[in-house]
From TrEMBL:
Biological function: Specifically catalyzes the decarboxylation of meso-diaminopimelate (meso-DAP) to L-lysine.
Record's protein name: Diaminopimelate decarboxylase
Assembly mode: Homodimer.
Organism: Sphingobium lactosutens DS20
MF terms in GO: diaminopimelate decarboxylase activity; pyridoxal phosphate binding
Entry similarity comment: Belongs to the Orn/Lys/Arg decarboxylase class-II family. LysA subfamily.
Catalytic activity reported: meso-2,6-diaminopimelate + H(+) = L-lysine + CO2
Amino acid sequence: MDHFSYVDGAMQVEQVPMEAIAQAVGTPVYVYSTATLERHVGVFRDGLAQLDDPLIAFAVKANPNAAVLATLAKLGLGADVVSGGELLRAVAAGIPASRIVFSGVGKTAEEMRLALDHGIYQFNLESEPEAEMLSQVAASLGKRAPVAFRINPDVDAGTHAKISTGKSENKFGIPYDRALDSYAAARDLPGLDVQGVAVHIGSQLTDLAPLEAAFVKVGALIDALRAAGHDIRTADLGGGLGVPYDPAQPLPPSPADYGAMVCRVTQDWPVRLMFEPGRVIVGNAGVLLSRVIRVKQGAQAPFVIVDAAMNDLMRPSLYDAWHDIRAVKPSGARATANVVGPVCETGDTFAMHRDMDVVQADDLVAFMTAGAYGATMAGTYNSRPLTPEVLVSGDKWAVVRDRPPLRALIDGDIIPDWLAD
Ligand code: LLP
């Protein structure tokens, strides 16, 4: 459920008309709803209410805007970070280091030092060489780094190949069958305190079965590790729960269904559970608001050319992702259309042969469910500036990232001496 609704025939976000935001800030612009963020955190937390003090670490990659992070920090969430940049953003937004976990296959020594200086809760290690490097870095600072190994359970998440992470051929984690050896080697490393096990098999999962299969494997590994004398105290079950994008599709499992499965599978585990939800917290809390530039007749269907493009919202061109496209002021008429951006490649397509509200030049449209992996994945292809972002709370709203001036795109480049006159 979200707080984007039609009032007197026009879309509002909470109590703010979309039209007012478009008028003031221009388009394209990402618009986020605080009430929706709060609701999703509440629902996720309620699903885990039976657990003792779980750590819910928001996957910052899904939406790293400082205002979004500060909202989630106020609600008590931690952060799952994958770079020094994300770590600093989380800390700056008020998320305590004691609630930060650092994931990712390619942490550098510099990033490890930064995270150790902040005293984060856990590093999720993805290989033995990484464990050795972290041990060295920690030992050189006179510290012991709290770590888990992310295991690769070889489970097919049943999601898009580009966001599946738990198959043995994927780059993530240590192979399940090598786990006991990797833990044994890590125990002898002076700079590590081996405290946990982690898993994350992919994103936008619409079936709980692969998650359950992975968690069952984690449970068996915890038993084996404890039997081998490892003091395993944490289990990080990752993120991955899907959200509804297409109203015509069956609903994905709810956070309540997910929580019930987690509680059932983990009931005897002698550990603190950790979670890294991203999309389920922010996905439906954001839309990309865009204006129709013109409508052009096509051979089969009209092309609705909007002022947002693949550089602003990459998901359709990258993963053939489906985003609902709604007119901000629907006339009531519907027809089939293709929705495309102005970028000069065919991949800059948001929808083909879509049954949608009939729109014309200057109308506003909203790309729904764009709060996760939207603005954060934007780029400046075709020399288009990064998309601004707005956060709404009740009847208040604020620009939380400005649209950079076009000049900034040009001034960032440097012409070397030998080309300057
Ligand atoms: N933990 C780890 C280690 C991850 O790699 C991810 C996402 C998450 C947690 C959060 O997963 P979520 O709950 O959001 O599914 N750009 C893609 C999604 C990439 C996900 C990458 N990892 C998309 O737009 O669909």
